[in-house]
Amino acid sequence: MIAKLKGLVEGQEEGAALIDVGGVVYRTLSSAKTLAGLPAKGQPVALETEYLVIQEVPTLVGFGTLAELEAFRLLVTVNGVGPKAALAILSIFAPDVLFGAIANGDAKAIQAAKGVGGKAAARIITDLRDKVGAFAGVVSSAGGVDTAPTPEGTIAADAVSALTNLGYQQPEASKAVAAVMEEDRDADVSTLIRLALKRLSGS
């Protein structure tokens, strides 16, 4: 069992990081957030990992933080939510923001993740709503996610990331999110995504 990789960044493929550990290059499936946080090629990096067998193929999944790993493990306990869907969700939500959406029953926000439909989002909320509060506290005390209120800039970045994952270009997504925030400075990430989508669709 490989629990953690420490090595040098070899590069990236679509949806995966390549990590050179002593001359052996490991490929880890990873969220967009983890991939975006990787240092430059040749620089040292450490990834938390989960070993899975996906369609009979041994697979490593890599995470930039322990909090993201634990959130992934929680998501894949939900019937119908596989590794691909879990990584899609974690590509647009930091763990604390995801836990907030689940606790608030915000299925529409979770549906912003690529490939996650209404039924899957509803199951995530039904199965995990009673677990995320205590779970977030455990992760925070272990040095993972900070469960303090998310800074406004991070909320905006998460909303823009969600919109770009839905196929919108970053400039138009940023403009829509900024317009929503001008009207509602207290909007949370799910509200930002929902209202920005309305603007982008012209409705």
Overview of this structure, please?
The chain has helices at 32-36, 66-75, 83-92, 95-103, 107-110, 118-128, 132-141, 152-165, 170-183, 189-201; strands spanning 4-13, 16-21, 24-29, 44-54, 57-63. The protein is α+β, with helices and mostly antiparallel strands and 203 residues long. It has three domains: 4-63, OB fold (Dihydrolipoamide Acetyltransferase, E2P) (Beta Barrel); 66-141, DNA polymerase, domain 1; 152-201, Ubiquitin-associated (UBA) domain (Helicase, Ruva Protein, domain 3, Orthogonal Bundle). The protein has a five-stranded mixed barrel. Helix 8 (152-165) packs across helix 10. The chain is globular and about 55 Å long. Mean pLDDT is 83; it is low at 137-152.
Please write out the topology.
Blueprint: E1 4-13, E2 16-21, E3 24-29, H1 32-36, E4 44-54, E5 57-63, H2 66-75, H3 83-92, H4 95-103, H5 107-110, H6 118-128, H7 132-141, H8 152-165, H9 170-183, H10 189-201
Parallel strand pairs: 3-5
Antiparallel strand pairs: 1-2, 1-4, 2-3, 4-5
